[in-house]
Fold this protein.
Amino acid sequence: MPNTERVTVTLPAEVVRSIDSLEPNRSKFILEAVNRELQRRRRRELQRSLRSPHPESVELAEAGFKDWAQSLPEEDASDLVRLDSGKAVRWIPNKGWVEK
């Protein structure tokens, strides 16, 4: 069984009754709800990041992947980068990544 920690959460009685009417295992219900919310927030943060990438990401994109990969030491590049795979993309402000 995965590591677990006991937490105390205070909820309005009406919410607890609603949970109990749908799922006899409160912990399971709350765990599923928390996992969904965490996933939703990660997705929202990823979308925000894609709309406004870090300046270094933009610089890397402008320099070009091939140039960046060729700048790596040969012993690193062969394990990390396959120049014959992937698609060429470029960043367009307020639009995002688009194929070249």
In short: Helices lie at 13-22, 26-51, 55-63, 65-71, 74-80.
